[in-house]
Amino acid sequence: MTAPLSNDLLERMDAYWRAANYLSVGQIYLRDNPLLKQKLTLAHVKPRLLGHWGTTPGLNFLYVHLNRLIQAHDLNMIYVTGPGHGGPSLVANTYLEGTYSEIYPEVGQDEAGLMKLFTQFSYPGGVPSHVAAEVPGSINEGGELGYCLMHAYGAVFDNPDLIAACVVGDGEAETGALATSWHSNKFLNPARDGAVLPILHLNGYKIANPTVLARISHEELEALFRGYGYGPLFVEGSDPRQMHQLMAAALDEAHGRIVEIQRQARNAGFSGRPAWPMIVFRSPKGWTGPREVDGKQTEGSWRSHQVPLAKIAEVPEHLGLLEDWLKSYRPWELFDESGRLRADLRSLAPQGERRMGANPHANGGVLLRDLNLPDFRHYAVEVNNPGSQTAESTRVAGLYLRDVIKLNVEERNFRIFGPDETESNRLSPVFEVTSRAFTGEILETDTQLSPNGRVMEVLSEHLCQGWLEGYLLTGRHGFFSCYEAFIHIVDSMFNQHAKWLKVCQDIPWRRPIASLTYLLTSHVWRQDHNGFSHQDPGFIDHVANKKADIIRVYLPPDANSLLSVVDHCLRSRDYINVIVAGKQPQLQWMDMGSAVAHCRTGLGIWEWASNDDGDPDAVVACAGDVPTMESLAAVMVLREAFPALRLRVVNVVDIMALQAPSQHPHGVADDLFDRMFTTDRPVIFAYHGYPALIHRLTYRRANHANFHVHGYQEEGTTTTPFDMTVLNGLDRFHLARAVVDRVPSLAASREEFARFVEDKLAEHDAYIRENGEDLPEIRNWRWLIREVDA
Amino acid sequence: MTAPLSNDLLERMDAYWRAANYLSVGQIYLRDNPLLKQKLTLAHVKPRLLGHWGTTPGLNFLYVHLNRLIQAHDLNMIYVTGPGHGGPSLVANTYLEGTYSEIYPEVGQDEAGLMKLFTQFSYPGGVPSHVAAEVPGSINEGGELGYCLMHAYGAVFDNPDLIAACVVGDGEAETGALATSWHSNKFLNPARDGAVLPILHLNGYKIANPTVLARISHEELEALFRGYGYGPLFVEGSDPRQMHQLMAAALDEAHGRIVEIQRQARNAGFSGRPAWPMIVFRSPKGWTGPREVDGKQTEGSWRSHQVPLAKIAEVPEHLGLLEDWLKSYRPWELFDESGRLRADLRSLAPQGERRMGANPHANGGVLLRDLNLPDFRHYAVEVNNPGSQTAESTRVAGLYLRDVIKLNVEERNFRIFGPDETESNRLSPVFEVTSRAFTGEILETDTQLSPNGRVMEVLSEHLCQGWLEGYLLTGRHGFFSCYEAFIHIVDSMFNQHAKWLKVCQDIPWRRPIASLTYLLTSHVWRQDHNGFSHQDPGFIDHVANKKADIIRVYLPPDANSLLSVVDHCLRSRDYINVIVAGKQPQLQWMDMGSAVAHCRTGLGIWEWASNDDGDPDAVVACAGDVPTMESLAAVMVLREAFPALRLRVVNVVDIMALQAPSQHPHGVADDLFDRMFTTDRPVIFAYHGYPALIHRLTYRRANHANFHVHGYQEEGTTTTPFDMTVLNGLDRFHLARAVVDRVPSLAASREEFARFVEDKLAEHDAYIRENGEDLPEIRNWRWLIREVDA
Questions:
Q1: Is A774 near chain B, with CB under 8 Å?
Q2: Boundaries of each Xylulose 5-phosphate/Fructose 6-phosphate phosphoketolase C-terminal domain copy (chains A, B) (predicted)?
Q3: Chain B CB within 8 Å of residue A538 CB
Q4: Where do runs of H (alpha helix) occur along B163-301?
Q5: pLDDT of residue A783
Q6: Rounded to whole angstroms, how far apart are CA atoms A626 and A629?
Q7: Would you say the C-alpha torsion B80, B82, B86, B87 has a positive or negative sign?
């Protein structure tokens, strides 16, 4: 066995590890007597024992070893902690290295600080059991499992000097998100990106079960990681002295390989994907904890998952066992009288920003630089008259994004993410200046594929989301385009990122990061051949449940408003922006000046389509591109039928503007809202998604009871664009009829108009059955506009 | 090279393949001249070309080869098709084998039938491009990718004779769900379960990109699948004759291995997880399609993904190319004059239910048998007076589930699924009669772990959901228990299952299947140590967007109502049931008789807690266990403060009962609703989740404007149970104050009461900061009840 550690170093590293373990156990159990200066009594033990021990000693072990590696090579390294309930470890280690006390001065490097450290853990309003935003050095919340490895990869993209040591729990390794994360190495370029050092922590057990990867053969395990493209190194055992030497050797070897891979790629250029090192670290769950409790194996078993000695008050022997356990770390050898870690151990931690708890990449806001943004007005579609021409809105946004990439090539701080849909979503102009990133085999016949590409495409919404989060959390910028229906795949990841951002609002040392911006396109209304499975506009509802301070939702109806919104989103910080916009050719309504003004308020009256003279019989409101078109067509139908009818058209870009200002910072003032929507006239609202959301957002508005919302009713199939609106009652005829039904002065015309609508829809229905497409008068949008405009 | 196929058989199989390819191309392109009896003209070609060719020839190739295997060994086999847009293939093959025409007689086995077959594809209201519920033989919708392999495993659990041949697209193989699905073999027992034969279809490209797995080395690919625990067989090439022999040999080998694995396990008992065979099938994307179009490689490239010749009308040469392509299959050799497949080819398909399109397992409702259910009343918690005792509701449900397992052991048609949480969610009584299923290594120290277990635990909500869907779709029953927050991980899978069920309502030959029932526990209000990341009650909102016919949501406040609800759900068909119930000790309110009556209506007045004499000053309503407790405590606080105040308590179990009957079949009639909630009194509604949902559900009710809903406001941290309610304004004091603020007769007391509430909350706040737990008077629920009861 190689023995890279001298005896002295090994002893000190072991002592450091014991110190971290001691502090971890202390956090779970103690509320007094933090240095065990007195005999342990029940009064020193927390009355309610909350927390988790199982994963912690392994995390502690890795921390001291990574510290050695950092010091030996002056590494720029962050520690991404996947396993759930690893909180005590990271708190302990950032405390030992000093970072924690710098950020939280009330937790000082003395006995009082230790007391505070212990008591705050899993205490009301205190420190969570998971590695959370409150913990310095973290970019990954350990509560929902499976995202650490994608965060680690996201962190090192475009950070050539950075190494992300990423501990993957063997429990979370069973999740889908983690299982596909290993393939991230096909998108990592050793010449321009940093390195991820994955460490699979095989401690064998989840809450109450063994883990899958701990119960397959060594041969299969090794084959699996070779198959994933890694060169695995195995560190397995339970004897601390042996394990110290093994781990040190493995880390030296891994580091050497990383250096060599990077050297080759950076000197000679990228020449094929290397087999990056990774470590399989098999150690007992609850290592160094009680071997047996009440006659049952505890160390090395799932019984170590939470609190191994849970009945301190009830079972008399448990107090003694706890004291033995704490004393097994020999705290008197680790801390001086004042409670401070001894100097010879302190020197094992790196200094300043080399400390993993203080690495600025783990607090990306401090590194964040504004993007160089082109003037989005330069990409404006010329619109002399509303509806005088068509454009594919997302393609126009693609031109702008192309230049965002171009202007930030030097800064290397902007990437676009999406599941194989950049082209399909018509953002293809970006390929004029960059390619898709790929470090798998590239054939001569491939196009727009390069190890240097800045578009990250993989058929996994999880990977797109996770990489982007990692990229943003380390102080860069990004943009995620996705089919609308399938963004639900990352609902839960969105939740966790939104929660992270919300928590960070109360953590002053966490600096603002760039917002996470989604462009949802290929949306519910245009799935002509994909059909029902691709129709779901519900992500907006999901988003609306999160804190108003964090979330923004935009439905730009045309290209110029989309440009304005995208520009705004790329400048924003600490938000999650959701933009929904179609990719199909569509009529353009606003010139750039109007679009900018419209987006600034978030909603507005379209005077050119209104004839209400300040006193409408009804308001026709719309949000979303297809609803906007159908609303305007409905207005046209109504004007033809009822020339005297006074209609007002209100378009909404920023749907959070509908909410009361007390509920969302974008909410427009009540008087403005009332001026637009009136306080007593019927409002027929055509909305892109599920109608309930508009009711929810307008709930506190004066005219709320008069809002009649048409939207997606979960009806769909493989059919034409217009037929989709008909199936859901969002088409021009249903909308027009809804107006007629609610304007008192038209009461006498209702029956006749209902028949007219039925005839029109029957005519259309017969036509599509015969011809497979929409009636020409419906397909020909010019016809719509000529009339509205007149 | 082995050559298992005789020349004659090879020729006929190739002809059958050509027939399927011909029908696939025909579906994409033709609206007339289906047998190419005339020279092809533009008039024969659909005006709008929708559909996807790329994956289809490979799927067709596999189908004829699996047909041979079925015939050779009289196999019971289903075909699970993962790749997106595989619709044309499965429609073509089920048509060729006769199944399609039996189910859809209008698509007969003649020229007219062919015409209909072609024109209906990707036509408004016609046949989708994905393998969907409309396609016979399918249990997997091909629209959202990544779920085929978990569906296949779910299908074969407890189906020892069944083989699920599962084609995994190399695009979808990049998804997280699929990447972890390969590990399903650690949960498959060859003695009692059937077999999955995964076939990775490496056709190399997604929409616009190569796939990851197509661009790693052979060595890595082989290692990956060996690491996943399979013995991969490779079928690679493009020459059809060679490929026929290779595929036939690979299938013979795979089948032989499956037979041998099963023989050993069934004769000698399970003795270790075998290396199941799988096939890597590398063939060109768009195989046999146009090699080049407009000078660009098309066959064997992503350009074959959709319609390879897309501009038939615009580019004159394309029509000729299309004709050449169609003729390359020599349809005149395949179909007779009448348009029927020639008899020597027809004989290649199996007969009757051996046809993969007619296998009853793919229409599980026809195999479904009712569960043997114990009388849930036997598990009743005795409740003499409301609140006279506590119980852990989910543990009581666990007793019932234990006996469900016991009573159906022989039938082998019930399993419980959950991500390592059965014990944590206190369903542990089930382990008295069964274990967790596991076929990885089992150690002596393991407990409740066996290859014969009926509890499926893996730390992947995706796998739990996918296995369960596969199990239900093949005619069995199941139950999924999950932490509430993390069920969002499968939001998108839920969507697709709900859409599948909705579509099946209009497919008479699809027989009803058992409902998918979720028990969401470890919920938002009791995450004392898990904190903010574990707090999200939004799944209910997500569910509420789907069709009312499909979804049911229950919030039983105690054990007896939970029993009644679980029993009801296990008897139901074609629904998705969501049950939210806590696992912590909680007061019990209803005896079994009351609980059954309460659950039958879905909501009701709790007379024992009300004192309104038919004319309340306010209604205190509640849904969910924690809100129910806080509401009753609020009533107690109010009675003490205002003895003359007349309060009514309404508890809601089935929140869909709140909706108007026109919106949901469970919606109670307006007059009943009005009798309970009044039409003009304030209703203070304490709700488990995000408040907006209650407004949404009650939107059409007369008293809606007087509903004031308290619920989760996305505020949380590591804290005590009661403090969580305080943070979100759902605690007894906030609720009581909300009542006082809205009852006109109490106007004079508002200020004083507000001060009282503030004092109470401040007192509590000080106490938890000092003691780390809730005030004794709040922890001691007895105190609450004594007062309410008095």
A1: no
A2: 583-783
A3: yes
A4: 176-181, 218-227, 240-268
A5: 52
A6: 5
A7: positive
pLDDT digits (tens, 9 = 90+) for A191-215: 999 999 999 999 999 888 899 999 9
The first and second tokens of residue B162, run together, are 């069944």
Query: Residue A274 has what pLDDT?
Result: 97
- Distances in whole angstroms, Cα of residue A317 to Cα of each of A116, A293, A314, B788: 27, 10, 9, 42
A607-665 per-position pLDDT tens digit: 999 999 999 999 999 999 999 999 999 999 999 999 999 999 999 999 999 999 999 99
Nearest to A342 by CA among A15, A122, A655: A15
Residue A208: exposed, middle, or buried by beta-carbon count in 10 A (0-12, 13-18, 19+)? buried
pLDDT of B790 > 50? The answer is no
Q: What is the model's pLDDT at position B779? A: 75
pLDDT at residue A789 is higher than 80: no
What is the identity of the amino acid at B546?
K
Q: Using a CB-CB distance cutoff of 8 angstroms, which residues of chain B are in contact with residue A228? A: 220, 224, 227
Question: For residues B417 and B614, is the Cβ–Cβ distance under 8 A?
Answer: no
- Minimum-distance CB partner of A458 among B48, B212, B223: B212
Per DSSP bridges, beta strands A585-587 and A390-392 are: antiparallel
Contact of A259 with chain B, judged by CB distance below 8 Å, is answered with no
Neighbours of A59 (CB within 10 A): 28
Residue A441: closest C-alpha in chain B:
B215
Q: What average pLDDT does the segment A553-579 reach? A: 98
Q: Which residue type occupies A549?
A: D
Q: How far is CA B46 from the centre of its chain?
A: 36
Query: Residue A449 and residue B216: Cα distance in Å, rounded?
Result: 15
pLDDT at B785: 54
Contact status, residue B123 vs residue A718, Cβ threshold 8 Å:
yes
Residue of A nearest to B448 (CA): A209
- Look at residue B1 in the predicted model and tell me its pLDDT: 59
Helices and strands, counts by H and E, chain B: 26, 22
CA angle A187, A189, A190 (to 5 degrees): 140
Q: Which two tokens stand for residue A35?
A: 């240095």
Rounded Cα–Cα distance for residues A217 and A638 (Å):
73
The verdict on a CB contact (< 8 Å) between B485 and A144 is yes
Q: Which residue is associated with the tokens 């405590």?
A: B633
pLDDT (0 to 100) of residue B630: 95
Where do the domains of chain A lie, and which CATH numbers do they carry?
10-354 (3.40.50.970), 376-586 (3.40.50.970), 603-789 (3.40.50.920)
Q: Which of residues 446-465 of A touch B (CB under 8 A)?
A: 446, 449, 457-463
- Residue range A568-574: average pLDDT? 98
Instruction: Count CB neighbours of B409 within 10 A.
Output: 13
Rounded Cα distance, A611 and A622, in Å: 16
pLDDT for residue B788 is more than 80: no
Q: In this complex, which of A124, A186, A224 lies closest to B212 when CB atoms are compared?
A: A186
The verdict on A209 touching B (C-beta cutoff 8 Å) is yes
pLDDT single digits (tens) B522-566: 899 998 878 899 999 999 999 999 999 999 999 999 999 999 999
Interface contact flag, B179 A179, Cβ < 8 Å: yes
A467-483 pLDDT tens trace: 999 999 999 999 999 99
Which residue is associated with the tokens 């909603």?
Answer: A603
- Of A426, A233, A449, A480, the C-alpha closest to B212 is A449
Cα separation, B485 vs A376, in Å, equals 40
Query: For B434-467, how does the pLDDT look when each residue is reduced to its tens digit (9 = 90+)?
Result: 999 999 999 998 999 999 999 999 999 999 999 9
pTM, full prediction: 0.97
Best probe of the B interface among A488, A715, A726, by most B CBs < 10 A, is A488
Angle, helices B240-268 vs B56-73, to 10°: value is 50
